[in-house]
Amino acid sequence: MELEMIDVKVYILGFTILIAFIFYSVGIFTPTWIIVKNAELSIVFEFRGVISFNSAEPGWLSAGRWLMSFSFISFILMIIFYLIAFFQVKNNGCPHKYRIWFYSISVCSAIILILTPTAITLIGINGSYGFLTLGFTVWLYMTSMMLTVASLGISGYIAYKECR
């Protein structure tokens, strides 16, 4: 059976969403997101992840964690929208009425692209005044953001140009 161009684009969209989700999930559940250290002695005291909520933490850290959690929920919604769109396109092609699923993927991507850099900036700027520094998992988020930009573009293109 021959693959149509729309099928290839939908597969590429699914691949970018999956890889971005893997990078994001590893980043959010890895405990090296925030490093608490003493800069004068160069001693690392502890590592913290995003999900480990603490009632005694500063408000900006709590806000950053909530933003990251909402981004993760948006990723899960994006995967659900992709699966719906994938099976509908696979069975019926890409008529005009399936645009909504690709636009929904674009909206979820945009939400992720707004909330995640906001959380990273919030925690990075406020944490730099104390003993907190950002760990290496921020680079996982940045890789995930680049792939999310790709999924935003691909899903918007499919919705606008392919589903007619």
Automatic annotation (TrEMBL):
InterPro entries in the record: Claudin-like (IPR009545)
Organism of derivation: Caenorhabditis brenneri
Lineage: Eukaryota, Metazoa, Ecdysozoa, Nematoda, Chromadorea
Domain of life according to the entry: Eukaryota
UniProt protein name: Uncharacterized protein
Regions crossing the membrane: 12-36, 66-89, 101-126, 138-160
Keyword tags: Membrane, Transmembrane, Transmembrane helix
A Pfam entry, by short name: Claudin_3
